[in-house]
């Protein structure tokens, strides 16, 4: 497996992860959950929780998901890439629809007199 550093990620990805981490930290603080308790509930360490709250891309998606579960926010992750809200994908699929649909011909009986 190739380990990517934060510097090798596209800037929009780094910004999104940083915002996710900040939002997780804010949600934890609004709930008045100390870092040691949050880490224990997420089955991780305080160091890893700190990395999550910084938006570190080296932390597994599973740990981000577990932290969101502990915060009661897992539904938002589940719906993140919902196919019904994929406007670009739907538009591309619509472009590939046939322009015209022809009725299939009945098989000819060649050889029958």
SSE diagram, text form:
Elements: H1 11-30, H2 35-41, H3 46-54, H4 61-70, H5 74-78, H6 87-95
Helix pairs in contact: 1-3, 2-3
Number of strands: 0
Helix content: 40-55%
Rough shape? elongated
- Straight-line N-to-C gap: 69 Å
Looking at the structure, the CATH topology is 434 Repressor (Amino-terminal Domain)
- Radius of gyration of CA atoms, rounded to a whole number: 24 Å
Strand percentage lies at under 5%
Please report the first level of CATH classification, the CATH class: Mainly Alpha
Helix segment count? Answer: 6
CATH-level-2 architecture: Orthogonal Bundle
Which whole number gives the mean pLDDT? 90
Which structural class do the helices and strands define?
A: mainly alpha
Characterize the biggest β-sheet: none
What is the helix/strand order? HHHHHH
| Poorly predicted runs of 5 or more residues | none
Any idea what the CATH superfamily is called? Answer: lambda repressor-like DNA-binding domains
How many individual domains? 1
Task: Outline the structure in words.
- The chain is mainly alpha-helical.
- It has a single domain, classed as 434 Repressor (Amino-terminal Domain) (Orthogonal Bundle), CATH 1.10.260.
- The protein contains 6 helices and no strands.
- Helix 2 packs across helix 3 (46-54).
- The mean pLDDT is 90.
């Amino acid at each position: 497996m190739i380990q990517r550093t934060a510097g090798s990620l596209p800037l929009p990805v780094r910004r999104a992860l940083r915002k996710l981490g900040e939002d997780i930290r804010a949600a934890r603080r609004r709930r008045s959950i100390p870092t040691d308790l949050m880490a224990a509930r997420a089955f991780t360490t305080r160091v890893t929780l700190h990395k999550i709250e910084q938006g570190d891309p080296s932390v597994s998606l599973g740990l981000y998901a577990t932290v969101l579960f502990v915060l009661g926010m897992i539904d938002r992750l589940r719906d993140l890439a919902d196919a019904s809200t994929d406007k670009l994908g739907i538009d591309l699929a619509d472009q590939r629809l046939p322009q015209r649909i022809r009725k299939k011909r009945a098989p000819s009986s060649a050889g029958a007199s």
